[in-house]
Automatic annotation (TrEMBL):
Top-rank lineage group of the source organism: Bacteria
Organism annotation: Hirschia litorea
PANTHER family: CMD DOMAIN-CONTAINING PROTEIN, SI:CH211-175M2.5
Location of the Carboxymuconolactone decarboxylase-like domain: 45-108
UniProt-listed SUPFAM superfamilies: AhpD-like
Annotated transmembrane regions: none
InterPro entries xref list: AhpD-like (IPR029032), CMD-like (IPR003779)
Protein name: Carboxymuconolactone decarboxylase family protein
Amino acid sequence: MSTYTLHTPETAPDEAKEILAGAKKTMGFVPNLYATMAQSPELLKSYKYLADSFASNSLNADERNVVWLVINYENNCHYCVPAHTGIAKSQGVSDDIINAIRDGKTIPNAKLEALAEFTRQMLNQRGVVTDEQVQALFAHGYDNTTVLDVILGLAHKTLSNYTNHVANTPVDEAFSKFAWTKPDAK
């Protein structure tokens, strides 16, 4: 398998240097995902744009983190599950919600579980969901905007999950305490 360079603001291609420097300033470190993606500045720029867009969509913090974590779980992403566990905790998401997703169990909140199930369906059915599946989501107070925001989340996490799979991106020290291995299927 090919190895990927973990770039720094100093070693990255010119078009990626500013994003890496900004991450270091904002977060105190360059996440290994960014460091890996920097090899393709267009990928890194696209990922950052989608991350910023998803962070300002119609979903609240609990809902955004449910979408992220479910996608990461379903895609078996060794890097993103720990990273988004740390992010969810920093955004005040309940451990009950986080642990249910990490453990492949039902979320103890019917509305969030409906969102999680719809996200799984969108991912596993490659966007071909039934009217009944959409209506099940809508029955919990969601709407067409939610459907589109889930699609945005899928696009965002596809870039990171796939990158982490091919690059075997090392989990950052900041998230290593949330290391994760996918439990046996439900």
